Amino acid sequence: MSATIRLQREPFDAAIEAAKLTRGRTDIGAVVTFAGICRGDEAGTSISALTLEHYPGMAETEIARHVAEAEKRWPLLGVTVIHRYGRIAPGENIVLVITASSHREAAFAAAEFLMDYLKTRAPFWKQVEATGGAIWVAAKESDDRASERWTAPARGKSETVR
Fold this sequence. Notes:
- It is built from four helices and nine strands; from the N terminus they run βαβββαβββαββα.
- The protein is α+β, with helices and mostly antiparallel strands and about 160 residues long.
- It has one domain (about 1-150): Aldehyde Oxidoreductase, domain 3 (Alpha-Beta Complex).
- The strands form two sheets. Strands 3, 4, 6, 8 and 9 form a five-stranded antiparallel β-sheet that branches.
- It is globular.
- The two termini are about 20 Å apart.
């Protein structure tokens, strides 16, 4: 399986990244692309930007560990995870997860698994700039509940995926 993991300040182009992952491949039958975009509000409060911080080295290692877990759970043929850090304005991309497989079920499930991880357990911290000043955003209970579904034992790759 090919895997790309990048943390970067610069914007990315989701279409270009998906094309890189699939170029020359005839074994891929499904590609799921998820791009997380900075909204102009946080919990009903208008924001001018968000700032994401991370631990360099540690963040990449942890993301790679979860990509490897996704590969154990589903028959993936490729994964791309790009996460930006630094100051990000509303309308700009924050995160990109692309999963490729022979079949859509695996691609969709793996993309959800990776996004749930990135949202709840990846070593990133988010600060929003609002009219009243900058505040650090706490984890959301709803995100934690969503990620709990993945605590079941990993499925074997030998299972039939349609």
